[in-house]
Design brief:
The complex is a heterotrimer of chains A (311), B (402) and C (295).
Chain A lengths: L6 H16 L6 H23 L8 H17 L4 H23 L4 H21 L26 H23 L2 H11 L1 H6 L4 H27 L9 H14 L6 H16 L5 H16 L3 H10 L4
Helix pairs in contact in A: 2-6, 2-9, 2-10, 2-11, 3-4, 3-5, 3-9, 4-5, 4-9, 6-9, 7-9, 10-11, 10-12, 10-13
Chain B lengths: L1 H15 L11 E7 L10 H15 L6 E7 L4 H14 L4 E4 L3 H14 L2 E4 L16 E3 L4 H14 L4 E7 L2 H16 L3 E8 L8 H10 L3 E5 L2 H13 L5 E4 L4 H7 L1 H4 L3 E4 L7 H10 L10 H20 L1 H6 L1 H10 L2 E3 L3 E5 L5 E2 L2 E6 L12 E7 L1 H4 L14
Parallel strand pairs in B: 1-2, 1-3, 3-4, 4-5, 6-7, 6-8, 8-9
Antiparallel strand pairs in B: 10-14, 11-12, 12-13, 14-15
Chain C lengths: L2 E2 L2 E2 H32 L6 H19 L3 H22 L9 H23 L15 E3 L4 E3 H23 L1 H11 L1 H6 L4 H23 L9 H16 L4 H21 L7 H12 L10
Antiparallel strand pairs in C: 1-2, 3-4
Helix pairs in contact in C: 1-5, 1-8, 1-9, 1-10, 2-3, 2-4, 2-8, 2-9, 3-8, 5-6, 9-10, 9-11
């Protein structure tokens, strides 16, 4: 056991790190960075659905606002990379606090619908507000130097930063799940009335989990805006909320590596199908249907189940 | 065990990705990047690709290989910029052309600037491409917001439409058009009586704003929107029995065709190309029409043809090695050589990258006036090239010496 | 000119009427959602897609078969009703007994597939559909010019809502339906074929959405995205009204349409968000919704 990892998880982690190190030699680094950003985003989302049992249908709001604010601070206040990304995370967290505070009043599908409606409101806000640049988004975001000194213009230099951000976020999520706090969250997921009767202030736990998840989503969004030098409405649109659900669902809800695997597959799928009209949407929909009907554990969940391992 | 399975999965995904660098050849590659499935697929889309290929075909006999690839940017700046990045980095694309929708146009502009690659924008309206966000490797063909506002706004006032009401899509592009048009309307002595802005996108019912417009008694209804929104607002104005003039700030012959003359008649709009303008435009149209029989060329399609042709001429003049090395070098050569093609005639590209051609204010014919297929426009006013565009000194382009 | 809060009365009346029209669509769609949710415990995310398909079937009937608007008013809901029944039988039924969230995800997937296929087929800019001859033109009501077609939409939607309400509250079939909502096994024990009733209920909800689609077809261009933006607003309407009551969803639907219309007069930029703001206020004051039973 290290950091709460089982042996199997530790070997998978080592494998994942090895892949992260080797991959840019073979694959287009910009593509990999996108996968890493989405992987962190999906892992953050998974913290909520996998370990608290709350389906947020509005996670694009935190991802997108994180992306906007990181882009804005990098461009207008000349924040260095790490500060810009952190400012995105802070934005996600604050927004998550407001939305979470409202949404945890209801459960299940109502929770899903409320988060969706509020994220749509955030979308309209981004469309109207002047700092987001409306349709244009925030463009020509500089890749600011790390710590103000190390230049990031080179794709590979940025890649290592993004990989580090991803790994820190990933390990943090793992740490949260295996902390006493995380254990309470899982107790709430399994049986909320019992958790209440045991004296836990369930709403406080849920809210904190929501804020953490939103903040990490904001960090992922901020990282994405550093990679592409642009923050746009795509990141706050409801379809992004749907995509992150899909990534988590394919990979395996409630598994640690599932969301990352989901993000990789999703990224590959999107890149592949981008040239064929709107087949991306159709395929996404079909995978949703398939996963829900026959494959609810997802790839990693299914794999873990076969091997009798928690991954 | 786990490790190897993960590796296997990872390996499979890696093998499946088409992202490895392609070998660079001595071939010139042109990428047409535009909307092929959305609201602008008729104004640009496949017909733009056909027109770019037409230019390549007409140029073919002159020495080097050229191929044209195309992609759909879905009107999303991040997708557009992503494709552009990959095209320039990995696919050996030397020039990207078309790129409608201002937001995407600017995003691709940023990539072209960063990578020093040639970029001929035709489809986007924003005047910032040759102004605040200009770059030495960017050329802007066919039209921009300034030219549209000056012609449709200013010239309509000259023709008697002196009181206006605007219906404006509530986003950067809509407001920019309204602001520019208001400037020219007031310059010519007209007045703007009011304006409604509506949430964009997602509004398809304009009746509320039409009622508001009607209650002011304005002589001209100005539409500061584009694509399906423009078409919807015109249809609904028709439904409400709108009798005064309608001026569409951004509209193409392809939109007129979609609306049909009974609804579209009397509309005023501005383009820099019309297939029936003169012998040369008719000759060009006759050549491409068999390839796109249901969608005749508008000014964007014409720009994709003319821009590609002029680019190829400059490549030949400069030499292929130098052309592949630097986008700025090739665009400088494009600026140095006068343009001459069937669509726009003889013209030139100004220092900031803008093509200097006249703009035409057209009025849509009545069904009775129209003599044949696509016979839609009569010319109301021509603004000569040296007056049609924003003066060089006002653009704020950083590398222009004034 | 009579003014109210600095805006001409004419304009106000005009916007109220137009708000009523939007409200009619909200009411039709949230009604269908409520009926389906009541019996199946599924939040039908595909509702917007079914609405859109209704409009496309209307367009297709005219374009390919020459069948006009009036027969489509019956035919399109029928076609979509059958499609709904098939969806329920082949897909949704398999989720019985699982967390209702899976139903939400499944129907979301269905919506993506349907909309994606339609976009591939017809592009995203849409196809035109003309207003039927008998309803074209406008009448001058003195305080405003009202296009005849829009008046028809409000009346047709209101009548349809009322009819659905009567069926559920005043007929034996409705009584069975309500009983099955409360306790399905018991109703089954009385010899009622509950699975068939579930299928028919989903079909009826789908047909209601399609009916809305037919009404919408001549007003806007028929396009593959027309349902998506609407469904998210309708979700907010449902949260505001509370999913418990049929009458509640009708009243909330129309009411929010009117509020939205008023916003267009006084603060147009806020018209896209006002319903969500109302939702936040209702959540703070009455988390179960205006007409919902407390959890």
């Amino acid at each position: 056991m290290m950091l709460g990892f089982t042996r199997a998880q530790a070997s998978a982690l080592v494998a994942m790190i090895a892949i992260i190190i080797v991959a840019p030699a073979v694959l287009y680094p910009v593509f990999l960075m996108k996968v890493l950003c989405f992987g962190l985003f999906a892992s953050a989302f998974n913290l909520l659905i996998g370990y608290v049992g709350l389906l947020s249908f509005g996670h694009a709001a935190y991802f997108g606002m994180g992306s906007y604010v990181a882009a804005w601070t990098a461009k207008n206040w000349h924040f260095s990379s790490e500060l810009a990304i952190l400012s995105g995370g802070a934005t996600g967290g604050v927004l998550g606090l407001v939305v979470g505070w409202l949404a945890i009043r209801r459960q299940g599908i109502y929770f899903a619908m409320i988060t969706l409606a509020l994220s749509q409101m955030v979308y309209f806000f981004c469309l109207e507000a002047s700092f987001t640049g409306g349709e244009d988004g925030i463009q020509q975001v500089p890749r600011s130097p790390l710590f103000g000194v190390i230049p990031m213009q080179n794709d590979m230099a940025l890649y290592w930063v993004i990989a580090a951000v991803f790994l820190i976020g990933f390990l943090l999520i793992h740490r949260i799940i295996h902390s006493p706090f995380g254990q309470v969250l899982q107790a709430i997921r399994e049986n909320e009335p019992r958790a209440i009767s045991l004296g836990y202030r369930v709403d406080d736990y849920k809210l904190l989990a929501f804020v953490l998840s939103a903040a990490l989503a904001g960090i992922a969004g901020g990282a994405k805006s550093q990679v592409f030098g642009i923050a746009t409405l795509t990141d706050v649109h409801w379809s992004m909320s749907g995509e992150v659900i899909l990534m988590t669902l394919i990979g395996g809800i409630g598994t640690i590596f599932g969301p990352v695997m989901g993000a990789l597959l999703f990224g590959a799928l999107e890149t592949y199908l981008a040239q064929f009209g709107d087949w991306v949407t159709v395929t996404q929909g079909a995978i949703f249907v398939l996963c829900v009907l026959a494959f609810r554990r997802g790839i990693i969940g299914e794999l873990g189940n076969r091997l009798k391992l928690a991954l | 065990m786990t490790v190897s399975r993960r590796m296997l999965l990872g390996g499979a995904a890696v093998a499946a990705l088409p992202l490895r660098a392609r070998a660079q050849t001595a071939k010139i590659r042109i990428g047409v990047l535009n909307d092929q499935s959305g609201p602008y697929r008729d104004t640009g889309g496949l017909t733009s690709v056909i027109c770019a290929r037409q230019a390549v075909q007409e140029f073919a006999a002159r020495g080097f290989d050229v191929d044209v690839i195309a992609a759909d940017h879905q009107n999303k700046p991040d997708i557009g910029a992503g494709i552009a990045r990959q095209w320039y980095d990995r696919e050996g694309v030397d020039m990207i052309i078309d790129v409608p929708t201002s937001s995407v146009g600017l995003a691709v502009g940023a990539v072209a600037k960063e990578k020093d690659k040639a970029y001929v924008n035709v489809g986007a309206a924003t005047a910032d491409l040759t102004g605040k966000q200009c770059a030495p490797s960017i050329v802007h063909w066919s039209y921009d917001t300034y030219m549209l506002s000056k012609s449709t706004g200013g010239s309509t006032v000259k023709a008697g439409g002196d009181t206006w009401y605007f219906i404006t899509a509530d986003y950067v592009f809509g407001h920019q058009l309204q602001r520019d048009a208001t400037h020219f309307i007031e310059l010519e002595g007209g007045r703007v009586l009011g304006a409604s802005s509506y949430p964009f996108p997602g509004t398809s019912d304009f009746s509320a704003f039409l009622l508001q417009a009607q209650s002011t008694g304005a002589k001209v209804l100005g539409l500061c929107n584009a694509g399906a929104d423009t078409v919807n607002s015109i249809k609904q104005a028709h439904e409400f029995g709108w009798t005064a003039k309608i001026a569409a700030m951004l509209m193409f012959i392809t939109d007129v065709h979609a609306l049909g003359l009974p609804v579209a008649q009397g509309l005023t709009l501005t383009e820099s190309f019309y297939w029936d303008l003169n012998d040369r435009t008719r000759a060009f149209t006759d050549r491409v029409r068999p390839k796109t029989p249901n969608n005749w060329p508008n000014m964007i399609h014409a720009g994709c043809y003319a821009g590609t042709l002029h680019f190829l001429k400059a490549v030949q003049d400069l030499g292929i090695a130098e052309a592949k090395r630097s986008g700025t070098a090739i665009v400088n050569r494009m600026k140095a050589m006068p343009t001459d093609d069937d669509c726009f005639g003889k013209a030139y590209i100004r220092e900031d990258g803008l093509l200097m051609v006249p703009s035409y204010l057209f009025q849509v014919k009545t069904p009775a006036e129209s003599k044949g297929p696509w016979d839609y426009y009569k010319t109301v006013h021509t603004t000569p090239a040296d007056e049609a565009w924003r003066p060089l000194s006002e653009g704020g382009c950083y590398f222009v010496k004034t | 000119m009579v003014m109210i809060f600095g805006k001409p009365l004419i304009l106000l009346y005009g916007q109220l009427t137009l708000g009523l029209i939007n409200g009619a669509f909200y009411a039709l769609l949230s009604l269908g959602l409520a009926v389906i949710f009541g019996l199946l415990n599924v939040v039908n995310f595909a509702h917007g897609a079914l609405f859109m398909l209704g409009a496309f079937v209307t367009w297709g009937l005219l374009t390919y078969l020459g069948i006009g608007y009036w027969p489509s008013l019956v035919l399109a809901p029928l076609v979509i009703g059958v499609l709904g029944a098939v969806m329920q039988r082949t897909l949704i039924r398999r989720l019985a007994g699982l967390d209702p969230l899976y139903g939400l995800l499944l129907t979301f997937g269905c919506a993506l597939v349907i909309e994606g296929l339609m976009r591939n087929q017809f592009g995203s800019s849409g196809v035109p559909y003309a207003i039927p001859e008998a309803l074209s033109g406008a009448v001058n009501l003195g305080f405003m010019v009202l296009p005849r077609y829009r008046a028809w939409v409000v009346i047709a939607a209101a009548v349809m809502c009322l009819a659905v309400w009567l069926v559920i509250e005043r007929t034996r079939l409705g009584a069975l339906l309500r009983a099955a909502t409360e306790n399905a096994p018991l109703v089954q024990a009385f010899g009622v074929n509950v699975p068939r009733m579930v299928t028919l209920t989903y079909a009826a909800g789908a047909a209601l959405a399609a009916f809305g689609g037919v009404l919408a077809a001549p007003m806007n261009s028929v396009n593959p995205n027309m349902g998506t933006n609407l469904i998210i607003v309708v979700f907010a309407v449902v949260v505001i009204g509370g999913m418990g009551s049929i009458l509640g969803s009708i009243i909330t639907g129309f009411g929010l349409g009117i509020i939205e219309g008023l916003t267009k007069v006084y603060y147009p930029e806020g018209s896209a968000t006002v319903i969500f703001v109302v939702m936040v206020i209702v959540l703070l004051l009455r988390p179960a919704g205006l007409f919902g039973k407390a959890a």
